[in-house]
# Entry
Amino acid sequence: MTLVQSWLNSHQILLTLVVIGCALVMFVGEWLPIDLTALLVTVVLIVLGLVSPEEGIAGFGNSATITVMAMFILSYGITRTGIIQIVRDFLVRWGGKSAGQQIMVLGLVVGPITAFINNTAVVAVFLPIVEEWARQRKISVSKLMIPLSYATVLGGMITVIGTSTNILASGLAKKLTGQEFSLFQFTPLGLLTFGLGLLYLVCLAPRLLPDRKPAVVGKITEEYQLKDYVSEIIIPPRSSLIGQTLRQSEIQRKFDIDVLEIIHNETHFPQPLADKVLSLGDILIVRGSRDDLLKIKAERGIEILADIKFSEADIEETLKEGEEKIAEVLILSNSRLIGSTLKELRFRQRYNATVIAVRRGEEILRQRLGKVKLKFGDLLLVQGPKESFLGLQTTRELLVLEEKSWENLRLEKAWIALAIIVAVVVVAAVDWMPILVSSLMGVLLMVITGCLKPGEVYGAIRWDIIFLLAGLIPLGTAMDNSGTTRWLAEGLVSFGGHLSGYWILLLFYAATALLTEILSNNATVVLMLPIAFEVAKSLALNPLAFMFVVTFAASNSYMTPIGYQTNTMVYGPGGYKFFDFTRVGAPLTIMLALLTPLFTILLYGLKPA
# Structure
């Protein structure tokens, strides 16, 4: 054994803490995508000898990882066959006129669904439904988007398969106790927190939520403040653009503008426009600042008709003329567009549509769009031919915020898909076979019955989550191998061992809830659940109660738009500011922090059975 190896072996706890600290910094700083950060952590653990190579890759074959993978496929099977869209009629019929009743009905619809279906998939389906519903009721979308996200988070805690965090916690519990959570083991606690959370949203959220984004047709360009960024230019007799195609002119490449439409002899020509020959008298509708238009005027001899000021209504009418349309498109978390610019992606050529503005949270970007690196949750204002939006609706990387055409759904398979999900749940609930096995059988049945095509199976999986889980599981192993978990637990016992069981559970809930706001939910549960288990053992308390409290706190993330993926998904569409989530989410978090430990003690006991 070399001196280096000897030193590493004698300082394993210190090394593990350093790795955890560096991982925290990388997660918070977003230096790399979180799945790559998790894999980097695994590689470092192997290099330092804190886990063996076999332990380092064990996460890819872990039952929790495979179960989460299967649940992603089952969730897509449900959405692909249109089961969720069918319930929208109930939402419209019973939604009522008051904000409280609307939130109640919305919660009662989406909550039970997310007990069995991945909540990000549910939010993706309901975003356009809720937007259309809000327009029909002439109410602000801002009143409903945060409740949509929060209701899916609360509903995901009703069963073990509701979230990937629950499944991961169940896998960790099996490693620690020899037995994983049963499917409905914390359902009573989940129903209580769901009911209380929904009651809070119904009674207090309408007063706390802003009225920031009116759901009125014809106001979309006003929301993006495009009045000074969409103009008409005309090609006069002396312009050097005459006789050139748009591609040859290079005006879109050299200047920060996008040509949205060309009008020739009162005929409107939509995208694609690159090979359209420009002629005398052509009118070009462009997105760009006045400074860029003046530069083109000086260099290429065009005339600006934008001196005749457009109103927002004029702009929207122009952009929607003929076969053109304008809509908002959300960047989803599994999108390959993330981290790339529109220019690098050749977005206009790929999708035959043009991005004319980007909403990033409360910020609206209208200039130099080609150089903006796209992020998860970005809301793109896109203009183009109507048929281009049909293509955008079929991609799983983008979500067009309008209801999908039912023609693209396999409605004839809807009840088959529902029966498969019910069978998976029943088989696992009565302990005929583990949820891992029943979910994999469900995946095979989805393909065999035609609910999903074989090629769709791979696209349905959130590979970023799979690699995140596989990369984080070895961190828990390293904490156990090095004694870090026991060391931290002993420190917590010496610090708070004199407190009552309720206060210790409350402290664990608070610490976990705070950590999950800056880390991923899965990373938090990997760090905190083994420590909670060791503390419970040291104090001769019920380990199950401690593990449940940590699991619930890790998933219940409400205070920021970046703490949970569904929060990020509604951030732009709701027109929210960052602290809107804090204003609504902080009281909810405090209420659940106080009550969840109490309910856990009442339902499961503080002393081991």
The two ends are 46 Å apart (CA to CA). Residues 328 and 381 are 5 Å apart (CA to CA).
